[in-house]
Amino acid sequence: MFKRILASIVIAFFIIGCGSPRIDTSSDEKMKASIEEIKKSLSDEKRKDFEDALKVVIFSNVALDFKSIFALGAEGTAQKIKEEGKALISNKTADEVILEAKKIKEKIFEEEKKKALEEIKVLEEKKEQAQKSAEELKKIVVGDLTFNREKNQYSSYLKPTIIINLKNNTDKAIARVYAVGTIKTEGREVPWIKEDFNYMIDGGIEPGETNTSSLSPNMFSSWGTANIGENATFTVKIVRIDGADGNIIASIQEFSEKDNQRLEDLKTKYINK
Protein backbone atom coordinates (compact mmCIF):
# COMPACT_ATOMS: atom_id res chain seq x y z
CA MET A 1 0.00 0.00 0.00
CA PHE A 2 2.81 2.39 1.03
CA LYS A 3 4.75 1.50 -2.11
CA ARG A 4 1.72 2.28 -4.23
CA ILE A 5 1.31 5.73 -2.60
CA LEU A 6 5.03 6.44 -2.93
CA ALA A 7 4.90 5.50 -6.61
CA SER A 8 2.01 7.90 -7.15
CA ILE A 9 3.94 10.75 -5.50
CA VAL A 10 7.00 10.04 -7.65
CA ILE A 11 4.89 10.02 -10.81
CA ALA A 12 3.23 13.30 -9.78
CA PHE A 13 6.59 15.00 -9.26
CA PHE A 14 7.80 13.60 -12.59
CA ILE A 15 4.77 15.06 -14.37
CA ILE A 16 5.26 18.43 -12.68
CA GLY A 17 8.94 18.45 -13.53
CA CYS A 18 8.19 17.65 -17.15
CA GLY A 19 5.31 20.11 -17.45
CA SER A 20 4.61 22.27 -20.48
CA PRO A 21 7.30 24.86 -21.18
CA ARG A 22 6.54 28.41 -20.10
CA ILE A 23 7.40 31.81 -21.51
CA ASP A 24 10.38 33.42 -19.78
CA THR A 25 10.18 37.22 -20.03
CA SER A 26 13.14 37.98 -17.77
CA SER A 27 14.97 39.24 -20.88
CA ASP A 28 14.18 39.71 -24.55
CA GLU A 29 16.57 36.92 -25.51
CA LYS A 30 15.06 34.44 -23.04
CA MET A 31 11.55 35.40 -24.08
CA LYS A 32 12.31 34.79 -27.74
CA ALA A 33 14.08 31.50 -26.97
CA SER A 34 11.30 30.23 -24.69
CA ILE A 35 8.63 31.07 -27.27
CA GLU A 36 10.59 29.19 -29.94
CA GLU A 37 10.93 26.24 -27.57
CA ILE A 38 7.16 26.20 -27.04
CA LYS A 39 6.53 26.35 -30.79
CA LYS A 40 8.78 23.34 -31.41
CA SER A 41 6.74 21.30 -28.93
CA LEU A 42 3.45 21.97 -30.73
CA SER A 43 1.73 20.47 -33.74
CA ASP A 44 1.47 22.63 -36.86
CA GLU A 45 -2.18 23.46 -36.15
CA LYS A 46 -1.63 24.30 -32.50
CA ARG A 47 1.51 26.30 -33.34
CA LYS A 48 -0.62 28.52 -35.57
CA ASP A 49 -3.20 28.89 -32.77
CA PHE A 50 -0.41 29.82 -30.34
CA GLU A 51 1.11 32.41 -32.68
CA ASP A 52 -2.28 34.02 -33.27
CA ALA A 53 -3.05 33.96 -29.55
CA LEU A 54 0.25 35.67 -28.73
CA LYS A 55 -0.68 38.61 -30.97
CA VAL A 56 -4.12 38.89 -29.40
CA VAL A 57 -2.82 38.83 -25.82
CA ILE A 58 0.19 41.09 -26.36
CA PHE A 59 -1.84 43.82 -28.08
CA SER A 60 -4.99 43.45 -25.96
CA ASN A 61 -4.08 46.41 -23.75
CA VAL A 62 -3.09 48.75 -26.58
CA ALA A 63 -5.43 51.72 -26.13
CA LEU A 64 -3.19 54.75 -26.43
CA ASP A 65 -4.65 58.05 -27.50
CA PHE A 66 -2.78 60.72 -29.45
CA LYS A 67 -2.06 62.64 -26.26
CA SER A 68 -0.28 59.62 -24.75
CA ILE A 69 1.65 58.97 -27.95
CA PHE A 70 2.88 62.57 -28.12
CA ALA A 71 3.80 62.47 -24.42
CA LEU A 72 5.74 59.20 -24.69
CA GLY A 73 7.14 59.66 -28.18
CA ALA A 74 7.43 56.88 -30.76
CA GLU A 75 10.11 54.95 -28.86
CA GLY A 76 8.38 55.39 -25.52
CA THR A 77 5.08 54.21 -26.95
CA ALA A 78 6.68 51.12 -28.48
CA GLN A 79 8.46 50.36 -25.20
CA LYS A 80 5.22 50.74 -23.21
CA ILE A 81 3.39 48.32 -25.53
CA LYS A 82 6.30 45.88 -25.31
CA GLU A 83 6.50 45.90 -21.49
CA GLU A 84 2.74 45.57 -21.03
CA GLY A 85 2.68 42.73 -23.55
CA LYS A 86 5.50 40.88 -21.79
CA ALA A 87 3.66 41.13 -18.48
CA LEU A 88 0.55 39.55 -20.01
CA ILE A 89 2.36 36.47 -21.36
CA SER A 90 4.94 36.05 -18.58
CA ASN A 91 5.28 32.47 -17.26
CA LYS A 92 2.38 31.20 -19.37
CA THR A 93 2.20 27.93 -21.28
CA ALA A 94 0.88 27.64 -24.83
CA ASP A 95 -2.49 26.44 -23.54
CA GLU A 96 -2.71 29.33 -21.08
CA VAL A 97 -1.91 31.88 -23.80
CA ILE A 98 -4.50 30.34 -26.13
CA LEU A 99 -7.10 30.32 -23.34
CA GLU A 100 -6.33 33.95 -22.44
CA ALA A 101 -6.69 34.96 -26.09
CA LYS A 102 -10.04 33.18 -26.23
CA LYS A 103 -11.27 35.13 -23.19
CA ILE A 104 -10.07 38.40 -24.72
CA LYS A 105 -11.82 37.65 -28.03
CA GLU A 106 -15.04 36.77 -26.20
CA LYS A 107 -14.87 40.03 -24.24
CA ILE A 108 -14.25 42.03 -27.42
CA PHE A 109 -17.13 40.24 -29.13
CA GLU A 110 -19.50 41.05 -26.27
CA GLU A 111 -18.47 44.72 -26.35
CA GLU A 112 -18.95 44.79 -30.13
CA LYS A 113 -22.30 43.03 -29.74
CA LYS A 114 -23.51 45.63 -27.25
CA LYS A 115 -22.69 48.44 -29.71
CA ALA A 116 -24.14 46.44 -32.60
CA LEU A 117 -27.45 45.91 -30.79
CA GLU A 118 -27.71 49.67 -30.22
CA GLU A 119 -27.04 50.29 -33.93
CA ILE A 120 -29.57 47.61 -34.90
CA LYS A 121 -32.19 49.35 -32.76
CA VAL A 122 -31.50 52.70 -34.48
CA LEU A 123 -31.64 51.12 -37.95
CA GLU A 124 -34.84 49.21 -37.15
CA GLU A 125 -36.50 52.42 -35.92
CA LYS A 126 -35.30 54.26 -39.02
CA LYS A 127 -36.68 51.51 -41.25
CA GLU A 128 -40.01 51.45 -39.43
CA GLN A 129 -40.34 55.24 -39.59
CA ALA A 130 -39.50 55.22 -43.30
CA GLN A 131 -42.23 52.63 -43.94
CA LYS A 132 -44.80 54.58 -41.89
CA SER A 133 -43.94 57.85 -43.64
CA ALA A 134 -44.16 56.21 -47.06
CA GLU A 135 -47.64 54.87 -46.26
CA GLU A 136 -48.78 58.25 -44.89
CA LEU A 137 -47.51 60.13 -47.95
CA LYS A 138 -49.46 57.77 -50.21
CA LYS A 139 -52.59 59.26 -48.64
CA ILE A 140 -51.83 62.60 -50.29
CA VAL A 141 -53.37 62.10 -53.72
CA VAL A 142 -52.01 64.26 -56.54
CA GLY A 143 -54.83 65.18 -58.92
CA ASP A 144 -54.70 67.56 -61.87
CA LEU A 145 -51.28 69.02 -62.66
CA THR A 146 -50.40 71.85 -65.00
CA PHE A 147 -47.07 73.40 -65.88
CA ASN A 148 -46.78 76.29 -68.31
CA ARG A 149 -44.47 79.16 -69.13
CA GLU A 150 -45.53 82.55 -70.44
CA LYS A 151 -43.59 85.44 -71.87
CA ASN A 152 -42.65 88.05 -69.33
CA GLN A 153 -43.50 91.65 -70.15
CA TYR A 154 -40.45 93.01 -68.35
CA SER A 155 -37.88 90.28 -69.03
CA SER A 156 -36.65 87.91 -71.70
CA TYR A 157 -37.07 85.06 -69.22
CA LEU A 158 -40.22 82.99 -69.31
CA LYS A 159 -42.57 83.12 -66.33
CA PRO A 160 -43.25 79.55 -65.06
CA THR A 161 -46.46 78.52 -63.32
CA ILE A 162 -47.37 75.27 -61.54
CA ILE A 163 -50.98 74.45 -60.78
CA ILE A 164 -51.33 71.48 -58.45
CA ASN A 165 -54.40 69.74 -57.05
CA LEU A 166 -54.09 67.65 -53.87
CA LYS A 167 -56.51 65.60 -51.79
CA ASN A 168 -55.74 65.01 -48.12
CA ASN A 169 -56.69 61.46 -47.13
CA THR A 170 -54.75 61.58 -43.86
CA ASP A 171 -56.41 62.25 -40.50
CA LYS A 172 -54.43 65.47 -39.94
CA ALA A 173 -54.62 69.01 -41.31
CA ILE A 174 -51.76 69.87 -43.67
CA ALA A 175 -50.21 73.34 -43.70
CA ARG A 176 -47.15 72.91 -45.93
CA VAL A 177 -46.24 70.49 -48.70
CA TYR A 178 -42.78 69.54 -49.97
CA ALA A 179 -42.50 67.91 -53.37
CA VAL A 180 -40.24 66.98 -56.28
CA GLY A 181 -41.45 68.01 -59.71
CA THR A 182 -40.21 66.22 -62.82
CA ILE A 183 -40.72 67.06 -66.48
CA LYS A 184 -39.62 64.18 -68.67
CA THR A 185 -40.16 62.70 -72.11
CA GLU A 186 -40.91 58.99 -72.19
CA GLY A 187 -37.97 57.04 -73.59
CA ARG A 188 -35.39 59.56 -72.39
CA GLU A 189 -33.44 58.70 -69.24
CA VAL A 190 -32.57 62.26 -68.25
CA PRO A 191 -35.47 64.58 -67.36
CA TRP A 192 -35.67 68.11 -68.73
CA ILE A 193 -36.42 69.42 -65.26
CA LYS A 194 -36.22 67.81 -61.82
CA GLU A 195 -36.56 70.29 -58.97
CA ASP A 196 -37.63 70.38 -55.33
CA PHE A 197 -40.30 72.85 -54.30
CA ASN A 198 -42.49 73.51 -51.29
CA TYR A 199 -45.37 75.82 -50.48
CA MET A 200 -47.71 76.93 -47.71
CA ILE A 201 -51.41 76.25 -48.20
CA ASP A 202 -53.63 79.15 -47.16
CA GLY A 203 -56.00 77.77 -44.54
CA GLY A 204 -54.39 74.34 -44.90
CA ILE A 205 -56.07 71.18 -46.15
CA GLU A 206 -58.27 69.49 -43.59
CA PRO A 207 -58.72 65.70 -43.65
CA GLY A 208 -60.82 64.72 -46.66
CA GLU A 209 -60.47 68.12 -48.34
CA THR A 210 -59.11 68.91 -51.80
CA ASN A 211 -56.98 71.94 -52.58
CA THR A 212 -55.76 73.56 -55.78
CA SER A 213 -52.77 75.90 -55.56
CA SER A 214 -51.10 78.07 -58.18
CA LEU A 215 -47.35 78.44 -57.71
CA SER A 216 -44.82 80.73 -59.36
CA PRO A 217 -41.34 79.14 -59.29
CA ASN A 218 -38.24 81.28 -59.72
CA MET A 219 -37.97 82.20 -63.40
CA PHE A 220 -34.16 82.07 -63.14
CA SER A 221 -34.23 78.42 -62.04
CA SER A 222 -34.55 75.50 -64.44
CA TRP A 223 -38.33 75.94 -64.22
CA GLY A 224 -37.88 79.08 -66.28
CA THR A 225 -34.68 78.41 -68.23
CA ALA A 226 -34.57 74.71 -69.17
CA ASN A 227 -35.27 73.63 -72.73
CA ILE A 228 -38.17 71.20 -72.74
CA GLY A 229 -38.58 68.69 -75.57
CA GLU A 230 -41.77 67.53 -77.20
CA ASN A 231 -44.25 65.12 -75.60
CA ALA A 232 -42.94 65.87 -72.12
CA THR A 233 -45.06 64.99 -69.10
CA PHE A 234 -45.17 66.65 -65.69
CA THR A 235 -45.27 64.54 -62.52
CA VAL A 236 -45.04 65.44 -58.84
CA LYS A 237 -43.93 63.28 -55.91
CA ILE A 238 -44.87 64.41 -52.40
CA VAL A 239 -41.89 63.94 -50.09
CA ARG A 240 -42.97 65.70 -46.89
CA ILE A 241 -46.02 67.21 -45.23
CA ASP A 242 -46.13 69.53 -42.21
CA GLY A 243 -49.04 70.01 -39.83
CA ALA A 244 -50.71 73.15 -38.53
CA ASP A 245 -48.20 73.33 -35.66
CA GLY A 246 -45.28 73.34 -38.10
CA ASN A 247 -44.17 69.85 -37.10
CA ILE A 248 -43.51 67.14 -39.67
CA ILE A 249 -46.40 64.72 -40.17
CA ALA A 250 -44.54 62.48 -42.61
CA SER A 251 -41.33 62.69 -44.59
CA ILE A 252 -39.48 60.38 -46.94
CA GLN A 253 -36.83 58.87 -44.72
CA GLU A 254 -33.55 57.93 -46.34
CA PHE A 255 -33.38 54.21 -45.51
CA SER A 256 -31.05 53.21 -48.32
CA GLU A 257 -30.02 49.82 -49.64
CA LYS A 258 -26.74 50.39 -47.81
CA ASP A 259 -28.66 50.89 -44.54
CA ASN A 260 -30.65 47.72 -45.15
CA GLN A 261 -27.52 45.69 -45.93
CA ARG A 262 -25.83 47.00 -42.80
CA LEU A 263 -28.87 46.00 -40.73
CA GLU A 264 -28.94 42.49 -42.19
CA ASP A 265 -25.17 42.03 -41.70
CA LEU A 266 -25.37 43.08 -38.04
CA LYS A 267 -28.34 40.80 -37.37
CA THR A 268 -26.60 37.86 -39.04
CA LYS A 269 -23.40 38.35 -37.03
CA TYR A 270 -24.84 39.19 -33.62
CA ILE A 271 -28.42 37.85 -33.49
CA ASN A 272 -29.10 35.10 -36.03
CA LYS A 273 -26.19 32.92 -34.95
TrEMBL record:
Keywords: Coiled coil. The keyword Coiled coil applies. Residues 99-140 form a coiled coil. This is Lipoprotein. It comes from Arcobacter sp. AZ-2023. The lineage of its organism: Bacteria, Pseudomonadati, Campylobacterota, Epsilonproteobacteria, Campylobacterales.
